[in-house]
Amino acid sequence: MADELVHYEVRRGIATITLDSPHNRNALSTRLRAELTGHLETATADDTVRVVVLSHTGPVFCSGMDLKEAGGASAGEQGVNEFPAILERIWTSPKPVVARLAGPARAGGVGLVAACDIAVAVDTATFAFSEVRIGVVPAVISVTVLPRLLPRAAHELFLTGETFAAPRAAAVGLINSAVPAGELDAEVTRYTDMLALGAPTALAATKRMLREPRSSDLDEVFADMLELSAKHFGGPEGQEGIAAFVEKRPASWVPRD
């Protein structure tokens, strides 16, 4: 719909969620947050969706919380109170989520990028944890950002608020790839095509495995991982995948044109 701030489209198992509020640099306004949440829930519930792409219109991916709405509001009325739920939906989504950045991200926008499993940006995109420069703390986004960033870089970039470019964002672990603008969509497609080859249940289980803390007891860790591995080797997806490999054919979950 033309009056939406966030659009949703599904093609060949790829759900694309597009932030479309360029008048305020795709800031996380009340309305944008609500629409983004709804589309994330739709993608999660749709069994035909294999991969989610988070994209945008306009020159900026996302500028963070809407500061016009934040001004004059008390702590309990701040829109940031709704933001953890959005980051958690992306972080824990059973479907892989790919961020597509054709422009900069700031503050909460960087939190969105970090919550995604894969992030691809044009090499001219810039990033900044600008919170300290306006007297606030990058607290909520730290939950998704810190697991991505090298520790030394995290201290530097969180404390200084310095703007840094996409190549450095890739070097410190914030994004996966920085490419020329003309190659952005091809690079996103390269990732979504690879992700679509994975079995849905196996992908969801792998995402859970990657985010769960591990015991310091090596025997306990091996026991847990053996149980998980054997379960999927013997499960329907594992058996189908093994049969497809032996028979030299695509597995049943691989999308067809």
Explain how this protein is built.
This is Enoyl-CoA hydratase. InterPro entries: ClpP/crotonase-like_dom_sf, Enoyl-CoA_hydra/iso, Enoyl-CoA_hydra_C, Enoyl-CoA_Hydratase/Isomerase. Belongs to the enoyl-CoA hydratase/isomerase family. Pfam families: ECH_1. The chain has 257 residues and is of the alpha/beta class. Helices cover 44% and strands 15% of the residues. The protein contains eleven helices and nine strands. The chain has helices spanning 30-45, 67-70, 83-91, 108-115, 139-145, 151-160, 166-171, 184-196, 200-211, 218-234, 236-246; strands spanning 6-11, 14-19, 51-56, 97-101, 105-106, 118-122, 126-128, 164-165, 177-179. The strands form two sheets. It has a six-stranded mixed β-sheet, with helices on both faces. A hairpin with a 2-residue loop joins strand 1 (6-11) and strand 2 (14-19). Helix 1 (30-45) runs parallel beside helix 3. It is globular and about 60 Å long.
Q: Please give the share of residues in helix.
A: 40-55%
Can you summarize the main beta sheet?
A: 6 strands, mixed
Rounded to the nearest angstrom, the distance between the terminal CA atoms is 27 Å
Q: Percent of residues in beta strands?
A: 5-15%
Mean pLDDT: 95
What is the topological layout?
Layout: E1 6-11, E2 14-19, H1 30-45, E3 51-56, H2 67-70, H3 83-91, E4 97-101, E5 105-106, H4 108-115, E6 118-122, E7 126-128, H5 139-145, H6 151-160, E8 164-165, H7 166-171, E9 177-179, H8 184-196, H9 200-211, H10 218-234, H11 236-246
Parallel strand pairs: 2-3, 3-4, 4-6, 5-7, 6-9
Antiparallel strand pairs: 1-2, 7-8
Helix pairs in contact: 1-3, 3-4, 4-5
Family: Belongs to the enoyl-CoA hydratase/isomerase family.
Pfam families: ECH_1
Organism: Saccharothrix yanglingensis
